[in-house]
Automatic annotation (TrEMBL):
It comes from Chryseobacterium antibioticum. Signal peptide: none annotated. Residues 3-91 form the ABM domain. Transmembrane segments: none annotated. This is Antibiotic biosynthesis monooxygenase. Keywords: Monooxygenase, Oxidoreductase. GO terms for molecular function: monooxygenase activity. InterPro entries: ABM_dom, AI-2_Isomerase_LsrG, Dimeric_a/b-barrel.
Length: 96
């Protein structure tokens, strides 16, 4: 069963260019992973510095493997220094 994930990120406005650079590498590398069906970065139209990662994984196992990938671990380490708050992550299965 496919796993849908939405991750919400809030970055300090002074570091938006840095955040976008970090996201670019993360998206590029994650899209190469086995089981990654969708991995898109969306910027909130009304809240500068707020981003959503819209993810679709073949399975929970594929997503779990993603969580241990070096490119994600590096992103978390670097992004945590310039974020306003902790990441909010929502995971679920499509109903309709």
């Amino acid at each position: 069963m496919n796993l849908h994930v939405i991750a919400l990120f809030k970055f300090n406005e002074n570091y938006l260019m840095d955040a976008v650079e970090l996201f670019q590498n993360l998206v590029k590398e994650t899209r190469k992973e086995e089981g990654c069906l969708q991995y898109d970065l969306v910027e909130d139209k009304d809240n500068k510095g707020t981003f959503f990662m819209v993810e679709l994984w073949e399975s929970v196992d594929h997503h779990n493997r993603h969580n241990g990938q070096d490119h994600l671990l590096d992103f978390r380490k670097d992004a945590s220094k310039i974020m306003e708050s902790s990441v909010e992550v929502y995971k679920g299965f499509k109903i309709y």
